[in-house]
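Quick one before lunch.
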Amino acid sequence: MIQPVILSGGSGTRLWPLSREQMPKQFLRLTSSESLLQQTLARLKGLSAQPPILMGHHAHRFLMAEQLRESGLSGTLVLEPEGRNTAPAIACAALLARQTGEDPLLLVLPADHVIGDLAAFTQSVSCAEPLAAQGYLVTFGVVPTYPETGYGYIACGSPLGAGHQVSSFIEKPNAARAQHLLEEGNTLWNSGMFLLQASTYLSQLERLQPAMLAACQKAVDEAHGDLDFLRLGEDAFCSSPAESIDYAVMEHCDCAAVVPLDAQWSDIGSFDALWATQTPDNAGNVVSGDGMLTNTQRSLVIAKHRLVATLGVEDLIVVETSDSVLVAHRNQAQQVKQLVVSLTQAG
Ligand code: GDD
Ligand code: MG
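Model of the guanosine-5'-diphosphate-alpha-D-mannose complex:
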């Protein structure tokens, strides 16, 4: 049986000013009337799976609970006292899943991705199941189209079931290495979703990250119920090293496999990626809200409160909210993250 684990604790700063500390990307209704978290939950309906475990930050607990309720699903809401990245979050989910005496296959899903082809996603999960049951940490690989430096890269090894063994996993390479990996061929992007048996992940952590495993075990032992939530033991969880599964485990394990994912996947990592997932008009523009575009090409305009008019511009991102306006070139979309850091430092 599959146990979904939804990772809902990120901040999504590259989508500022839409995404805020109190309202990160996964809770935004960016591409439809459902938030990205709700689209992730809806994706589970096509699988034969247990009610999901949602891992998130305690500051977002009411958003998580409300959006879960709206989605019509039940699930366990587990609260992290602070973000320690994805490896400890998945460890706690695995330990909680093991408490029942079962050893389920954890389907780890980021809460902030878009998948256009649901049937293809479901098919990839089915292909991954036998490999995960054999003790592989299974990744879902996407054919890369450009040298993105914000993703993990999977070098495919020998064929294995419906996929391949992973001969190496390279998380967030620099631009030169990403270009090299792309040219080498036989390399896939890591989509950030995983299928792994709880016990396999925990035994890899025991080997690679014993301090993290010990902290997470204590956090789970000390967890307590609070209304609809399960709060992890605070001191123990905060003492865990903060690391992503990609750096902590995937780069170092020798039991990773990859199955192909061809499901119109996007992680909506930036406004440029958001622009690319939408159907543009004839001039290549994507407009949400009250936008008036004249002589404008290949631009994204999001107007939340006021009319936004553009004239004679190309490749622009304009995002208007009640208190801030972002105007950026589309090729600077990744730098919004640094902009937010500067804004936070400025006070
Ligand atoms: N519960 C919890 N706690 N969730 C978290 C935390 C945390 O501390 N930190 C991040 N998340 C969630 C995010 O909300 C997102 O859904 C998911 O975990 C992945 O985190 P990101 O911070 O978005 O990772 P990334 O995009 O830089 O990289 C990952 O995804 C790429 C594809 O989008 C990696 O797996 C890359 O290898 C991969 O290519
Ligand atoms: Mg991401």
